[in-house]
Amino acid sequence: MKKWIAGWLVIVLWGSTVVTAGAARSSYTYYPYGSEADADVTTQTTYGVNLMGGSTDVDEAMRWMAEKANGGDFVVLRTSGSDGYNQYLYDLAADNQSPLNSVETILLKNRNASYDSFVLNKVKNAEAVFFAGGDQFLYVDYIEGTPLEDALNSRIQKGIPIGGTSAGLAIQGYFVYDAANGTVYSDEALADPYNRYMTFSRNFLENRYLDHTITDSHFEQRDRMGRLVGFLSRNLLDGWTTEAKGIAVNEQTALLVEADGSARVAVQPGGTNQSVYLAKASSQPGQVSPLSISNIDVIKLNNGDTIDMTNWTNHSGFSYVLDAVNGVLSSSTGSVYGN
Q1: Is 292 in contact with 286 (CB distance < 8 Å)?
Q2: Torsions phi, psi of 107, nearest 5?
Q3: Number of DSSP helices (H) and strands (E) in the chain, helices first
Q4: How far is C-alpha 195 from the geometric centre of its chain's CA atoms?
Q5: Which of 129, 208, 243, 289 is 20 to 30 A removed from 50 (C-alpha atoms)?
Q6: Are 153 and 205 in contact (CB under 8 A)?
Q7: Buried b vs exposed e over 69-102: b needs ≥16 C-beta within 10 Å?
Q8: Omega prior to 32 cis, within 30 of 0
Q9: Are 138 and 108 in contact (CB under 8 A)?
Q10: φ and ψ of 108, to 5 deg
Q11: What is the C-alpha to C-alpha distance for residues 192 and 88, in angstroms, rounded to an integer?
């Protein structure tokens, strides 16, 4: 049986209600999905951060988040697209015998959405929050310095699982490459880390174990090691930190960070070059343009590898060192991407 209620198409199946159409507002569109999509529940959640590198989503990582939500309401935030995550997440959780109360996507259209009471209440009552891919500058532009940013950080402190993919990953670190002027390529970042495309924000999301850290996605697939070195150099040069750290994730790959700081790599079956890179720099660049910086410590983690995020020392990955001289990277292994 189908019927229209308050602008939503509601399909009634064997006593369950699945809300499938979006409710559009001037500043956002709301897409609910679930057996009780309009009825909030409160559950005991477990903290975790899902750092996913883009392209095909990692099913294991999304199930991991759903389990930590513990039958609660899973909110997806995005700035483009529609409700593509709703049924996928709902069914994935149910198939894993960890059903969710609802999956609710909120498409943010402008900054006004981050002041809207409906949006704020949905996030304040969420048992998980995930940022879809798209444009990280829009996330920063729409959310930074608003009540929605406060609500997100409050939920993080309360211990809900949070995460993102692609642009949604780019905003998870304490330092954010916001791409306000468009994307930057590795050769541009190494030639001049102060070029117009190197724009940053900081103190956005307050995820545990990501202090002094910047994140990047689509890593090997788009040859982004050079720009990660540029990011770390800028964080040092600008005086934001004395120990710059970066986490870069390949496509179809996720780094899953637990509440105790332990983390492991999960991948989507069938992918290639599915690794995570953790890079650390503490020496100021010897030259800015073109960039020269020495002794960047890198840890490469593959599927199933683990690391202690509290100190980055206890891990099962592969360690090597990078240097940049006059804008050219070199590696202790001969390859900037390790072995």
Answers
A1: yes
A2: -90, 110
A3: 8, 21
A4: 25
A5: 243
A6: yes
A7: bbbbbbbbbbbeeebebbebbbebbeeeebebbb
A8: no
A9: yes
A10: -80, 125
A11: 42
Q: What phi and psi values does residue 329 have, to the nearest 5 degrees?
A: -85, 145
Domain 25-272 classification at class level = alpha beta
Q: Count of alpha carbons within 13 Å of 40, Cβ hemisphere only?
A: 11
Task: Give dist(CA 166, CA 291) in Å, integer.
Answer: 26
Amino acid identity of residue 333, one-letter, is: T
Residue whose structure tokens are 């490469």: 300
Q: pTM to 2 decimals?
A: 0.93
DSSP one-letter code for 31: E
Residue pair 52/113 in contact (Cβ under 8 Å)? The answer is no
Cβ-Cβ contacts under 8 Å for 273 (sequence gap 6 or more) = 220, 221, 250, 251
Distance CA 94, CA 227 (A): 40
Locate 62 and state its tokens: 């999304």
Please count the other Cβ atoms lying within 10 Å of the Cβ belonging to residue 57: 22
Report yes or no: 317 and 264 within 8 Å, Cβ to Cβ: no
Strand partners of residue 108 = 28
Q: What is the pLDDT of residues 81-105, one digit of tens each?
A: 999 999 999 999 999 888 999 999 9
Q: Could you tell me the CA-to-CA distances from 186 to 84, 137, 167, 299, 324 in Å, in that order?
A: 32, 19, 17, 19, 12
Q: Which of 136, 41, 117 is nearest to 79 (CA)?
A: 136
Convert the pLDDT of each residue in 125-182 to its tens digit: 999 999 999 999 999 999 999 999 999 999 999 999 999 999 999 999 999 999 999 9
User: How many Cβ atoms sit within 10 Å of the Cβ of residue 150?
Assistant: 15
Tokens 């009634």 label which residue? 12
> What is the arithmetic mean of pLDDT over 57-62?
98
